[in-house]
Amino acid sequence: MRVLLLSAAFRPHQGGVATHATDLAHGLAEANNRVFVLTVRKRGKLKQETNDRLIVWKIDPRQPSEFDGRRAPLERISTFLMQRWHEVDADIIHAHDFDSLFVGWMLKTAFSIPLILTVHNAPRKWRPGLHRERPKNCFLEAVRTHGIVDGLIVPSQASASTLIAQGFTSESCGAAPKVIPHGIRRHLASFTPDPALLTEIGVDEDDIVFVLCPTRIDVHKDVDTFVKAAAQLKKNARRRRFLFLVTNEPTGIEYKVIAKSANQLGLEVGRDIRFRQFSYQEMATLYRRANLCVVPSPRESFGLTVLEAFLFGVPVIAANQGALPEIVRHENNGLLFEPGDPVDLSNQVSRILDNDELRQRICVAARKQVGEGEEYSADRMIKDHELFYGEVRARSGARR
Predict the structure, then answer these.
(1) Are 294 and 315 in contact (CB under 8 A)?
(2) Can you list the domains of the chain with their CATH numbers?
């Protein structure tokens, strides 16, 4: 099968969408599909990465220098693909999120190729009129009412429930959400540890309790609750020394607000709590050293960082909302806390640190979840996508 994958986020970009899109592309290629990826890069000219079955085009989407009211960055991207369609000649177009959807929609119209959309949007309780308040929901409503896509993928039941409440059913728009959970490729664990990185962030000593929060500062990630819990843990630390780390660059208005709050709560930024962005390879070193991984977001569409922590046997404490409870089973392979409750979060952290039997049992179950089972394996994810591609092509009367 020939697959065109469109995603603005692709490694080395940060985040779960970039990791998932990259793993999906490589996995499909390894399964003997011909895969073409078009993504964006922050600066520079076109960059092409090629192997036997995978071609990745990274294109600079900057605004044309002479804006005439009709041109936009997507014009350049769409033109690029249309001019190369004789090379791509895809059987299926797979767009990730809404910026890619527009390009996919144009290509579907031009070449009559089935279009699939994966929605990575954080689940939000649907109510009438929500699409008039938020652009992403407006895009989704356009997809629903106008039948833009031939197939719809979401990574969790939480996301599926949100879209079904909005009206995405086979009867109403022909595109009921198909749940295909993300899988994890084990190559993250193959990266060599970097002791210098641990020294740089201040966790090279064994007696420091290193609490990792692998998330960006975003309105639905709820880093504020993590910071408040960190302050409570420091206050009740007794003889423990903590280092709390949020994987977000120390820049921007949101960071300044969080940093100010941390200082007011008694956390010294740069000493007790640090903020920094890391590469995918560097994350392997952090997971190996972490005593705990906290995922505080109450509106995750999946939570790929949970699987990454599981891969290294790191105990995970996650918000009991959104898609996270589908992955983290309380007191089995992790712990859950009441969303937005820093006291409950700090209590769950203390439980892990004070109870060796609980911690070891959770770590064993977490490793087993991604090491032995098929539920979150990359192979299962690839097979599920291939089957769904076939179903969509059959429904749409694909030409080959």
Answers:
(1) no
(2) 2-183+377-396 (3.40.50.2000), 187-371 (3.40.50.2000)
Q: If you count DSSP H runs as helices and E runs as strands, how many of each does the chain have, helices first?
A: 16, 14
Paired tokens of 173 = 């728009």
d(CA 233, CA 345): 10
Beta bridge partners of 337: 319
Strands across the sheet containing 2-7: 47-50, 54-59, 34-40, 2-7, 92-96, 115-118, 151-154, 177-179
> Got the DSSP string for 146-191?
HT--SEEEESSHHHHHHHHHHT--HHHHS-PEEE----B-GGGGGS
What pLDDT, in 10s, does the model give residues 126-143? 788 877 877 778 888 888
pLDDT at 69 over 70: no
Residue 306: φ, ψ to 5°: -65, -45
Rounded alpha-carbon distances, angstroms, from residue 288 to 149, 233, 275, 282: 41, 22, 18, 10
pTM of the model: 0.91
Q: At what angle do helices 135-146 and 97-111 cross, to 10 degrees?
A: 30
CA atoms within 13 A on the CB side of 274: 17
